[in-house]
């Protein structure tokens, strides 16, 4: 059935069953492949997107449940927080294989949008659902603190 | 295929670029499908584009706009090889970092072989920089010389008057860019032995800190992985695999699967039953709707408990001698020696890279085109040809970024590539087929780090000096039955099973290292740092037990025993930076380990806090000597990541079997390290002028024993079984 979604500020109509995970609609129907498939069970966070500003695992979000909510993917972020996060990630050479990093960045942007000065423990809570098998955690933590400093300036 | 940047490709030739240049580029590596950054905008349809670039040599091409593209012959699975090899070319060319671009090499061993692999094309064993340091420097220097020769003619000046800097060639008041002379430079004779820079003249190599070439792509969602490939008419295949290794399809009822909307076909292949559909989700739904009966007559049905009992029995028997020196039994029989004995157990481990295995294949007539982050084109190419029923020269592999590997994409059997080709062939419609493994498929597919058991018996004499070491390793061979057997199994000993134990870093006069290679129907494969994942653990924790038996400090004990000054130097540096010997506050403990792997020396010191229940790893101080460093920040990142990767598995990850079936399926039961568990890691690099060695793997082996030794210091009980959290720790 046709379903209309708000994706990155645009209305996009797709032909999909309502139980289809948002992840597969983004990737297979809308060619927004920056959002990654990692586990399919909301255990790794690679598929994290924003739904009304909240970090959400798109692999466990059925398109039929989204309604009018606004979906933003890695391709559509552009807020001050997003720019600070991306700049910090680049300056600190955070990425290795990079496959989890869209999800990491989406979680980090949601965290900093909510909490301008997260502590280490805030970072643990917000980021523990995002797995990085390359274990870039050390730099992700530093980059979130760095982005927070940029946002203060 | 350029997957890195939208190539400066042009639909029509720009002024001044001849048709011949374009044709020449099309014949070389410089032309292909351009699906990089624009994939998301173009509906995923790959579009052909002509690029008016000049191929200066197999590794360097230059576009009219001056961008220099380096052809990367090693898979970049996160270890930063793309940045490293690009740095070498930019250095020797005197290019500007901002003008550098990268592209992946096709499968062509004649141009892109790995000299450490005897010329076979592949990435592994932490060899990329070690094997290609000179190759890429020469490629850059040769390109520079050709640009200078062309510029001299264009400016009508002697070549010696030309200086090169920042991508520009200057003589007096005349200046040309690389782009302006690229086409002419490509026609200059290629110098075979161009002069290379002296290391004191390096402007980029060894300098902090060049940004990684993949920073922007990987922080904007634009890096393209195998999983992201979408081609016109492509079908996605999801496969029902047998529940036990070695089982075969007996009977398939695919009626319900075929009724799923979007499903286009169901085929049986040797690996299982594949459902092909127009979307990934439809293929998954179709797979779930299959009803498959399996013939388990030949399947492996032993579980972890049965294997443990068999391995334990094997430890008590004599193994095949892998290394011997002195008279080990006589030394144990000496008066007054103190003997320490321990059995160790290491579980099967999944690689579980973030990107589950996948592969895109299109068979057209006798041609096979593959899109895959191929780590061993040398294995993937002939395997794909054999499965498709064609010859290797008809197989083309398009390289891509890999979402991790840790050895998984370096399959010695090309397992998932063979599966993808088998499905495309069985489907037989000539459309591209993307094989997608779910996380569960990936975790249950085998190719694990094997389960091992070790028995170590060692002795110190009355003065506290180690005099004897007997070490028996029991577990599956990674190599037997693969294409590597001839080169890597000698006299019944698979070198990868005992590396790190056979050539131990400590001077102990009487030693015997034995191996028993077991036959188990579970597919196994090298896993980041290979044999060192278990040998370093047994050796380094046993050394701490011996130090305790001798009443010695673990660092001082090691310093006296270590033979190689470079290993000593990293241990001394780590100890200094970690304030070894300075008391810690109550409840906190340190542990140390030092190990050489892949010709790189690493020492790590872990600091832990004992909690009411369990412990926390707070800080790790590492020191590394990997010879000449190309990118210090990449080296630091690899050691930081190696520490985290090794730590997660040491603490909490294991693959276990019940009656041959894998118990774990996803990240809830095979638990990866998470943010809250990551310690602070400091990495210190020993300055060196030695030849560059590996860095992707050597950070891994010392972390598990370093933490185990800290736990030993805290509790007095040695940690003998991995993962640690299988046992109760602390009070």
UniProtKB/TrEMBL annotation, chain A:
Classification via PROSITE patterns: 2FE2S_FER_1, 2FE2S_FER_2
Entry superkingdom: Bacteria
Keywords per UniProt: 2Fe-2S, Iron, Iron-sulfur, Metal-binding, Oxidoreductase
GO MF, one annotated term: oxidoreductase activity
The 2Fe-2S ferredoxin-type domain, residue ranges: 1-77
PANTHER family: BLR6218 PROTEIN (PTHR44379:SF2), OXIDOREDUCTASE WITH IRON-SULFUR SUBUNIT (PTHR44379)
Protein name listed in UniProt: Isoquinoline 1-oxidoreductase
Organism: Azorhizobium oxalatiphilum
Taxonomic lineage: Bacteria, Pseudomonadati, Pseudomonadota, Alphaproteobacteria, Hyphomicrobiales
UniProtKB/TrEMBL annotation, chain B:
Superkingdom field: Bacteria
SMART domains assigned to the protein according to its UniProt record, in alphabetical order: Ald_Xan_dh_C (SM01008)
Stretches assigned to the Aldehyde oxidase/xanthine dehydrogenase a/b hammerhead domain: 220-298
Signal peptide annotation: none
PROSITE patterns: TAT
GO MF annotations, alphabetized: oxidoreductase activity
InterPro entries from the UniProt entry: Ald_Oxase/Xan_DH_a/b, AldOxase/xan_DH_MoCoBD1, AldOxase/xan_DH_MoCoBD2, AldOxase/xan_DH_Mopterin-bd_sf, N-heterocyclic_Hydroxylase, OxRdtase_Mopterin-bd_su_IorB, TAT_signal
Protein name, per record: Oxidoreductase
